[in-house]
Amino acid sequence: MSMFDLSGKVAIVTGGSRGIGLGIAQALSEAGAAIVVAATHADQSADAVQRLRDAGATAASVPTNVADPDAALALVDEAVRLFGGVDILVNNAGINIRKRPEDYTVEEWHQVLSVNLDGPFFCSRAAYPAMKARGGGKIINIASLMSIFANEKAAAYGAAKGGLVQLTKALAVAWAADGIHANAILPGWIDTDLTAGARQQLPGLDEAVRARTPEGRWGTPQDLGGAAVFLASPASDFVTGTTLLVDGGFAAD
Prior knowledge:
- By secondary structure, this protein is α/β, with parallel strands linked by helices.
- Helix content is 45%, strand content 15%.
- Helix 3 (69-83) runs parallel beside helix 4 (106-133).
- The radius of gyration is 17 Å and the shape is globular.
- It starts with 9 loop residues before the first strand and ends in a 7-residue tail after the last strand.
């Protein structure tokens, strides 16, 4: 068996209906995993599941608000009902509200943190018993370069993603004895709907990203697939509590 083979594994991908989440779901399915797409928009989730099935994957969707702890529990229960268990959790769902710190409302601040930080905690906590019952599992948290770089209009997002990196380390330490590995991927500037909005709101961003990135381009959702398969597979069985940059060299320049 290949150390990257995910046959017989079940993966939940939050925010898996588009962008980075869908790119990761496609890669995990190509490696053999059954996919549960967890997202808020039923129509987008249905489209994503159809794309996965058309490519030969086993897939289903579960409408989920990750910021609701009860919804996180229901998501895991449904994944177990559909496919018999949970082996892989990709905490990818995220939002951003781009404002200077003094301009955030309290509600906006908490909204960003609830999806980007509370959500991964709720989903990981919900998945823990199911993973433990299977003898272990893999948690992959999608953080951001904003966890190590700063931007004047990303205070809430950066704080949440920085917290997510620390949460990753805490889960890795807490659950290592249960065979559960937790790691984070830090994507660079990836061409998605979310960053399309950033390019509209931040003049010069496109040129700055291309100039700073040694690869000379924006990443694609598919660029995250290999890293996700590695962290989801037996190939990473002695890798936990770490962060993996997938950024075209942005942080190295």
